User: Fold these one by one.
Assistant:
Number 1:
Amino acid sequence: MTAPIQDFARPPAGTVYPGAVAALVLGEGRFIRDIRQLIASFAEALRTDGVMLDYLVVVFATLHPQVRALHFVWRSDRREIAERAVGWNYTEQYYRSPFFPIHQGTHDVIRRRLADPNTPRDFGVLWDLDAEGFSDYLIASQKFSNPQRIPGAVSISTHLPGGFTDEMLSRFLASQALVAPLIDSHLSERIASTLLDVYVGPNAGQRILAGAIRRGDGETIPAAICFADLRSFTTLSDRLPRQELLELLNAFFECVVDSIHAHGGEVLKFIGDAVLAIFRASPGHEKDASRAALASAQRIFLNANELNPQRKAAGKESIEFGMAIHFGEVMYGNIGSNDRLDFTVIGPAVNVCSRIQGLCGRLDRSLLLSKSLIVTAECQDEVDDMGAHELKGVSSEVHIFAPRAFRN
């Protein structure tokens, strides 16, 4: 394989220039917890060491279903970091950027002397830098400890008349290699946090990272519990092609999850074709949690009603589901075996909510509520009384209500 192009040669591996960057890496840099602060400190240290940059960009790929990469931008005239997330759609702007050959592995270091009118303006960003009066530009790949991770990149630009000196660029590239392990550490932590947010939810993810990792770690909390279940899933599973079934499931989950998050709820689990979520109630604010759960449910059904005509016109299955909301105490924490844990909620209240949802079809209602939810939400005048019902695994009958706004 041909070696990546280097428009400016990197100094020999292990080259260390004494100065502010070395002091940052060996000293306070190890204790900086915010990657934006670390990048700003790195830029300031470079200037202290004589690398007269005015613009620094750090880019790295991340692991997130909606975000492909993160961009961090530092400017000398603002002395603050701007963070931008880049989605998975590859735009024309990306293909015309220097990040593309860096990510492809064809180039390792790209340098464009903008002070020289004969320097090719072969990347879109160079025209923008020209317009702002920058005189020089260099971008270098940033490799990480995990070889499977897509390389990142660090770029610098300057207003210095005539551009960077060779001494400045050599010092920058050596400094980049020196600070790389610190950035790598922040990146690994950011990815771990992001993946936990995606797979177990932000609140549970923060608790896990904070050390709540032992089986049995948890607490008893009051909450409005929501359980939503796609209707006729077994029949649909037999009838629909795999891809259509997955598309329907994802459309249903998106309908439910987006609304729950928007109203402050926490999605804890996908159970086959069902969703379990909670709205935590702080002491004295039980009504707020219950009302938020009801508002979320209303938005969920509105979302589905808006989508279903479009889905029908496209020949797709409608999103049809039943939902229940109950208020009670749950145990929120780790359960499982010694080496395979799940962070979720358990307890009689969760079982009651699931059983209530199972009555949606029989009672011909899309949304059912328990009496405890009605009491805490103070919405007795907004519901129909559906009577008391025996629920499997529940010792006493449970009084059930249905919002009038959700009559089938």
Number 2:
Amino acid sequence: MQYKDKGDRVVFYTEVRNKSIIKSSPANYIISRDALKESGDYISRYGKTAQIVGGVRALASLGDSFHTSLNNAGLTWQEYVFRGEVCDSQIDSIMENARNCGAEVMVGVGGGKAIDAAKIAAYNLGIPVVCIPTIAATCAAVTPMSVLYHENGIYKQDVFFPATPDMVIVDPAVIANAPVEYLKSGILDAIAKWYEGSASIIGSKDIADIFDECALRVAAMLFEEMQNNAAEAIASVKERKVSEALITVINLNIFFAGMIQSLGIKAVRNGIAHSIHNGLTVLAESHHILHGYKVGYGIYVQLTLLGAQQNMKTGTAEFFRKIGFTPSFNELGLPYTEDTVKAVAEKTYNDPMMRKVPFNFITADMIAAAMHNIEKEYLTR
């Protein structure tokens, strides 16, 4: 199935049910402390003219060694400063600039949104895309999908591509020098793969296959490794140091989380935590909150809603405390009122993932009640 928009723009949206379309990892994944110094050689494999898309801080974090590497590789390049949302107008603007500079390869730099926008633009233009995550906040750099929003920041839909990114280049030193909140966000987003996958697969036995089973086992491994390494990795970033624990968590946040999502896209990807994230986007106050923080809150809502997972709440709350995260409206800086909770619950209830077994018994009132219970729980601590 294809989603068409604005005439010449066609975004591939694949319905994976009953199809064997497996895109588990990028063609090349490079992680090295010298990765940026060598990035020009890597990128030049895909073209001699590059458009580099990223936010102001992300582009600045690449440093002179990145630009020197591009020049030494004989690349012609132009930077596009990404601002705002992954929305139609932003993507059109990226595409127009890419055409004007004759880009043969797109380079997405940053965290989630700039990379997601670069991936959509590259697909629409039919050119390769290289992703350089400067923070380990999401798995966007690895996945064959992007999240599309409306201009006002409200979630619109997920967009899937027929292939994963052509290359991912990671320099752990850059991530070690980024604000620690981004790493925490990535940790929460990554562990959601286990919480959501273990719940989702229960209602997906008719379509689950060996790839979904593999995804779930990798998610369990990710969850265990995160328990062992997250706190030390966070401490490393606070000290601006690259440690083995940090490298492990970077790989878990970016590569393995993305691989799980791709391998288990039929039966493991669905879950309440990300639907709660999408629901929170109706609140303008949520738009500045990192993706993983909203997903982390969604994990706790999911545990509260699902009887089979409620026994996991104590351990989850302890892990959240260990990494310095509190899943509540108050701690996230969101307005906690009857109206805001109702609005989030309604948006969550209408999310496509919530209409699938085993979550289709959940009502908007149940979601709202769970959110109220969580707020009361944390107010009494």
